[in-house]
Amino acid sequence: MQTMTERARPGASEGPADAPRILEFGLMPLVTAAFPERTTFLDTRLRWADVRTRAPGSGSLPMRLLGLARRVAGIGRACFVQDYDIVVARCVGPVNSAGRALPVHAALSLIGLAFRGLVLFAARGRRVRLVVLDVTDHLTIHPRDRAFLRRCDLFFKRELAANRWNTLETVLPRGACAGHARQDPGCLALRAKLRPFALGIETAAVKPPIPASARSHDLFYVGSAQGIAFREAVNGVLPRLAARGWRIHAPARRLSRDAFVEAIGQSRFCLSPGGVGWDCYRHYEVASLGSVPVFDTRPLTGIEPFLHGREGFYLDPQEDLERALDLILRTDDAQVDRMTAAAQALVERVYTFDALARYVIKETLALGPIARHAPPSAGEALVKAEPGQRQPSMN
Asked: Pfam families per the record (predicted)?
């Protein structure tokens, strides 16, 4: 487990000596893992118990209190000194206190308020750039993040609506509607800060694929409907596809992790419909484990979307679902192999955690020179793409 305030381990230089320094807040490091020599990670969990075992910390009560105080002091000291040029933080988002007592709701609200205040204090002044990552399931930005949107330089939004004004609906200035916002300079400035983001996946998850001709399933899907219309429709269609002779693997019960991984790797195609939000860990998991993902409609702006017929397939809600899936399943093995390779290449290039971190810093450096250090040309060495790579589209 990482400490509350830590400078990543020393080692070989990963870029120019004058490359930007980064301070990252959060529960899990993202940028820290990609740029360990340039990033200080502040673990803001401040948990009394071990977050993995939930067992209380060892030692006497005074010693645990002293340790907690030291971690808090370390965080405060790092923010006060401002030995960094870029602050990266997760958004506050909803309170998520449904079903809990009012005092718990109030306490969680205050924690979010304190976190937001700490981040804004760390990013005070014009020299330091603030980057906010929103990985919630919502198309709109939560009102609790209105202050972040106003103060930040860039706001990376998972589930960023194809029409970005829809994402801004809940955080526009008081009295402003979308029709007015399109002509308002302040609202246009907020829109210009938005960038697409994604959940991503770890690089180690990418596995060599099995040839399509050797896979034992044509189509794999497991998941509960949970009132989601597309999933309910799928559950009715799969038995009819099996009756046509297709090898459909659709277990009714939740699989173990090992069985789930094996089922994906043994399937030519895997259905990967969205849940509460469209962006889903399973999209990248399916491609990483060597299958071709089949998505429902994508109503979002993506960093670099899976292309229909190249890295995956999208189902048109206006078409007959059974007929559309039957046509997809008729894809020959050679094309399935090509699509599997293309999907894995896209995930490795754009959607691994390392690639997402480099994308965040690259977009930040593209805003212009950082005052304390050299112009972007020097800092860009941190995120320089390999020759021949397809660059993410910023839409």
From this structure: RXYLT1_C (PF24785)
